[in-house]
Design brief:
The strands form two sheets. The chain has an eight-stranded mixed beta sheet, sandwiched between helices. The chain contains eight helices and eleven strands. 33% of the residues lie in helices and 17% in strands. Helix 3 crosses helix 4. It is globular and about 45 Å long. It has one domain (28-307): Rossmann fold, CATH 3.40.50.1820. The chain is of the alpha/beta class. A hairpin with a 3-residue loop joins strand 2 (45-48) and strand 3 (52-55). Residues 1-23 have low confidence and may be disordered. It has helices spanning 2-21, 91-103, 127-141, 160-170, 209-216, 222-227, 255-266, 290-307; strands spanning 25-28, 45-48, 52-55, 61-65, 76-80, 87-89, 107-112, 153-158, 193-196, 241-246, 271-276.
């Protein structure tokens, strides 16, 4: 009991320090047993070279980056780094992006989600979406404390993280009002989507087979393939989207972005598509190429426009 009390006091003091000084911090998605998980005795792996790669995620969490309250727009973005559902490009497509969002007054929340390829999930294909749904609920439940407008929380993803972001944007619920967990009572519907060189389709010829096999296995059930082909899952209540990709992307074919854009247009859902003539795959913020980096300003203007509605 004393140990528990000390831990609780320590957490409260840390939380107060974070709120006062606006520092970023990490929050586990789940308290207690992680759903859809099994203990394999494995440990998370972090590789640091020119970028930080995280694999074998055991305890999914969110890293919260808050802008100065004076310049905060009230918007927040949950960021899903890519990596083919094998690894997470954690800084290139995560923390670096969160810091950029802070510079334009937007809260950036980096999601470290479980990967389906390491044997620590009971139903592997469900784990990434479960974590994305939980992250959205968790941000919404903390919106007031973090000076976030609970109706202005979006999802962003790069490559396979873009698949996860578009999966959340097409597979969400409005919360379980009967749950004893106040977090689970919150809606996990994102208010907007930002899809960066995303994997979208698992059925079309343009599919990224590596991501599909990582998520669903080599011989997946046809119903699951359709379920995770997100251009087929766009509904009338799918949120608006910003999509950007390089025309010369040899990693994930540009047709993925085109299919999603067409599906959104068919349902009359507002969408903005940017096709860059260069950049290849995995350009992130592309700070060394002004032309490719122009997507960040386009996103800034798009987010500003959303905030007026």
């Amino acid at each position: 009991m004393k140990v528990f009390l000390k831990s609780t006091i320590l957490f409260v003091l840390l939380f107060i320090n974070i709120l006062v000084y606006g520092q970023d911090y990490v929050l586990s998605l789940y308290q207690g047993k992680i759903p859809n998980s099994k203990n394999t005795g494995q440990k998370e792996k972090i590789e640091k070279s020119d970028i930080v790669l995280i694999s074998n995620v055991q305890d999914p969490d969110i890293a919260v980056y808050l802008p100065s309250k004076r310049f905060a727009t009230g918007q927040a973005v949950v960021i899903c780094p890519g990596g083919g559902y094998w690894v997470l490009a954690y800084d290139l497509e995560g923390t670096d992006v969160a810091k950029y969002l802070n510079s334009i007054g937007v809260a950036g929340i980096v999601l470290k989600y479980r990967l389906p390829t390491y044997g620590n999930c009971i139903e592997p294909h469900k784990a990434p979406l479960m974590d994305a749904q939980r992250a959205m609920r968790l941000v919404r439940s903390n919106a007031k404390a973090w000076s976030i407008d609970s109706t202005k929380i979006g999802i962003m993803g790069f490559s396979a993280g873009g698949h996860l972001a578009s999966t959340l944007g097409t597979h969400f619920d409005l919360g379980d009002k009967n749950s004893t967990d106040v977090v689970e009572q919150k809606s996990c519907r994102p208010d907007f989507m930002i899809l960066m060189y995303p994997v979208i389709s698992f059925t079309a010829d343009c599919t990224h087979t590596g991501s599909r096999e990582a998520l669903l296995g080599k011989n997946p059930d046809k119903a699951l393939v359709n379920y995770y082909s997100n251009e087929l899952q766009v509904q009338d209540n799918t949120p608006p989207a910003f999509i950007a990709q390089a025309d010369n992307d040899t990693g994930v074919p540009i047709e993925n972005s085109l299919l999603m854009y067409q599906a959104l247009r068919k349902k009359k859902i507002p969408a903005e598509l940017h096709i860059l003539s260069e950049g290849e795959h995995g350009f992130g913020l592309s700070v060394n190429n002004e032309h490719v980096a122009s997507w960040t300003n386009s996103l800034r203007l798009w987010l500003k426009g959303l905030n007026k509605k």
